[in-house]
Each structure stands twice: as C-alpha cells, then as structure tokens.
Write a structure and sequence with these properties.
Blueprint lengths: L8 H11 L1 E3 L1 H7 L5 E5 L3 H7 L6 E2 L5 H5 L15 E5 L4 H13 L4 E4 L2 H7 L17
Parallel strand pairs: 1-5, 2-3, 2-4, 4-5
Helix pairs in contact: 1-5
Organism: Microbaculum marinisediminis
InterPro entries: Rhodanese-like_dom (IPR001763), Rhodanese-like_dom_sf (IPR036873)
Protein name: Rhodanese-like domain-containing protein
C-alpha cells in the first residue's frame, strides 16, 4: 500500500512563514549578544560538530523543543521561561520556520527565526565558533 501525502513539507513551511516573524541574517546579527535575546539552535548535534555554532546560542534539538518549552513537562528547560526574545535557526531555515510556529502556538513570545538559517548567517559574515577537532584530524 502506498501513502499519498496530502500536504507536503513546502506547504507546511510556506504556511509557517506567513505566520511568523523572519529576520534577515543582518537583522539577527544586530540582535546577537543582547541580554534580552536567546538564539536557539535546533540543528542535530552532528550538524553542530561539523559546522560549528553561533556563539552564545543554546542547543535545543528539534525533537525535544516542545518538551523543553512547556513548563509542565518533566523535560522543561528554565531558559524558555525567561522574559526574552527567542531567535530560532536551523541549517537553512525550513526546520526553524516550523519550530518557530510551534513555539508561537505554545505561547512562547516573542519568537522569530533567521532567514537562511545557519547557512545564511555564515554567508552574511556572522560570527561562528568552529567545532573542535580531534587530535590529528584535519579540516576538509
């Protein structure tokens, strides 16, 4: 039996983008380092180890986000109860659009995401902490 997808990922992402705030990498860089802003990296840990991270960003894997945001969850992370602006990002902006909409629906506010994600940030010259290399390892 084959499944028919009735709503594809592109439609989900496009619908999310209509309902959330999207920052350009330059706008995100202007906010970076502010005391009232939390950058939230939802990429997989393997992505962070390959490409590095935005300095000061917290890592909240996409699969745990709802549990970390909800104060009623046994997995709740106190950072999500702080009165701050949350800037979500992933590698290219699709997952973070969906995550930002989910966070908004849950009542976390204000929330936004970076257009183009980490890749857009890097291309625009945003600061990056490169991953540590193991002894004897060489960068590709």
């Amino acid at each position: 039996m084959s499944q028919t997808i009735t709503v594809g990922f592109r439609k989900l992402v496009d619908d999310a983008l209509e309902q959330i705030e999207t920052l350009s990498p330059a706008e995100a860089m202007a906010l970076h380092g502010g005391d009232d802003v939390v950058f939230v990296d939802i990429r997989d840990v393997r992505e962070l180890s390959r490409t590095g991270k935005i300095p000061g960003a917290i890592h909240a894997p996409r699969g745990m986000l709802e549990f970390w945001i909800d104060p009623a969850s046994p997995y709740h992370k106190p950072v999500f109860a702080e009165d701050k602006r949350f800037v979500f990002f992933c590698a290219g902006g699709w997952r973070s659009a969906l995550a930002t909409l989910t966070a908004k629906k849950m009542g976390l506010a204000p929330v936004c995401h970076i257009d183009g994600g980490f890749g857009g940030w890097e291309k625009a010259g945003g600061p990056i902490e490169k991953p540590e290399m193991a002894p004897g390892e060489k960068r590709a």
